[in-house]
Each structure stands twice: as C-alpha cells, then as structure tokens.
Amino acid sequence: MKAQWFSSVDQIGEAKWQETIGDTRYPFAQFAFHQALEQSKSIGDGTGWYPEYLLVMDDDDSPLAIAPTYLKTHSQGEFVFDWSWADAYQRYGMRYFPKRIWAIPFSPVTGLRIFSHLDPKGDDVQFSHLYPALAELMTQANQERDFSSWHLLFTKPEHADLFASNKDLVQRISCQFHWFNRGYKDMEDYLSHFSSRKRKTARKEREKVAQAGIQLTRTLGRDLTPADIDFFYLCYQSTYAKRGQQGYLTREFFGQLAQDMGEQILLVRAFRGDEAIAASWCFFDDHSLYGRYWGCMEEVDCLHFEACYYQGIEFCLEKGLQHFDPGTQGEHKIARGFEPVFSHSIHYIAHEGFRDAIGNFCEEEAQAVREYHQDTQEMLPFKQET
C-alpha cells in the first residue's frame, strides 16, 4: 500500500477521484463537492482552510481510498469545539495552530471519512482497518511538520470503535438529533405515532404557517435558476449577519453545486404570495437527507420548524429515505421526532501533558453527554410502548 498527499482535487483529477470512490452516493464524498469548495474560494488562501487529500493506492498504483484532511489556522466551521484547548496552548506559550482536521468542511454530518470503491457504504468490517492505518500516516505527517494535533470529526461510531485500544488518541462524544424512518407511510401516519398532545402541537405548528399565508415548495438543485440561488444566498448570509458574522461559503459554491450535483440537492422555499421569504438547502443520497443551511428575510412563527424539519421529513417519506440528519445541536428538534444520537470524534494531541489533560476533560464531558442523551430520550413525542 502506498499513499500520497495532494493540495487540490484537480491534482488528483476527476477521473481518478471517481474511480477511487466508486459507487458511493454520499454527497460529501463527490469530486464536485470538493472542487466547488476550492474553485469558489470557500477554502484555500485567506480562509484558514488548506486542503491536503490523502490518496491511498495499491502497490500497482491502482487507487484504493481518499481521506479528506485540511490544515487549519483557526477552529471555525468545524462544530467540534476546541477553542479552550487552543487557549490553553496560548497561555503556556505554545503553538496550537496549524492543526490538521480529517473532516468535511462546514458540515457536522456523521459519515464516511475514507471514500473508497471497496467500501462505498462504509460498513465493510475488513476494509475498516484503513482507518487506524491512515491515522498513523496522519500522525507521522504531523510529527514531520511539528503540528500540535489532528482531529477526526463526526466519524461513524463503528469507525470510532477502531481507535479504542490506542491510548495515544482521545475519544470525544457529543449529542445530535436525527430522524429515522420507522416504516411510516406518510406524514399522517408518522404523526399518528405521537402522543395525542404532541400530535396536536405539531399540527398546530404547521397550521400557524399556513394561516400566515405561507406556502412551501421543494425544488431539486437541477431546476434552480440563478435568481433562486441568489435568493437562497441572501437567506444564508442573513443567518450569520444576525450574529454579526459572515457566512463561510461563497455564492459561487452554491451555484456550482446546483450545476454539478443538482440531483442530490433539495431547496425548500417559503413564499407569501409570489414573494420568497425563507429558504433551506439540503443534500441527499439514496439513504439520507442532510439539512445544512437556512435563512429567512422575515420572521414567521413556526416557519423554521416547517422549512427545516417537517418539509424534510415529508421529502424523506416521499423518496423512501431512511434517515434525516438536520444539523448539529437544537433540543427543539426533539418535539418534532428527532432522536438523540451520539456523534464521535478522535483526537491526536502530540504534547503528552496536554493529551492527558484533554483526555481527562473528554472523559468528564462524556459522562455529562451520556446523562443528557438519556434525559432527552424521555422528551421524545412518541407514544409509550405498552
């Protein structure tokens, strides 16, 4: 087995990239997704995100797998928060940045972090040995350049388990809320599994939006016009502007994705008459819907729940999708039937003293996360089994 680092997807080339990843439909593994990040300048010079893709090849140079990694000069856009770790390094006069993350930029979605035609769904037990093998390559590369750390973010739980015996690595868990299709026929069937009170609440939320004169539409990326994308981008930036920030991704990124990945993009829009007032951008594959970006030009009671959750659930039921990952955080998702799940990250900290301190912190944090996970299970809206 051989491995080589590349600083751009174009250095690998679309043909070799697609040959490497094979039939996987995971949207965040696609060449077009990563190329759009680079060509739109959402990552690269001046952004604090510098791609280094690890291509793994067989001895005959046939491609086996790709791991997406990025050198980072800050901790923004990752959603596994390590700012306190960076602050501690600074207080002791040590350098935390640059660091390496092994992740999907700006996307807190659990899934594949090794893309391969040999394991397109990421569930081949024999193939999984590549995770610790590539982790060792990352450690060696970090040591050669004296980087403080590398971080594998939002990996699948079975892949996180592969690192359990490695005492040089720190495991961290957090809690997200995901929806699962339990064989529901349609939205009415789904809501029928709620307790009476919770079902009435959900229906009232949807009715509030309709009574406000709001209509919702769902459009695939292939059918979006430049004006549609312009409006969505205005919504996207408005979400950040409310916090005094600017969105990480450029207008060109979304336009390029609609053109190159239109079959895997869903845009939900809210209209009052002919005027669009809100939008939610999602990705999907054959199994899952991934809710990513949202914004509105006008605040309407319960519109966020409708555009970001109920519309997504309806889309999953129509398309036969089994899972909906709506993004990170948010207890408000529980009342709409999103169940608590653990998300997993793996961290290599080069400095032994900091590694021990961070490991102790993550152990204490994990206990609180497990208790929170248990508490939120009891808040779900579903009828109690008898």
UniProtKB/TrEMBL annotation:
UniProt-listed SUPFAM superfamilies: Acyl-CoA N-acyltransferases (Nat) (SSF55729)
Taxonomy, superkingdom: Bacteria
Family matches, as PANTHER family: ACYL-COA
Protein name, UniProt field: GNAT family N-acetyltransferase
Species of provenance: Marinomonas rhodophyticola
Native organism taxonomy: Bacteria, Pseudomonadati, Pseudomonadota, Gammaproteobacteria, Oceanospirillales
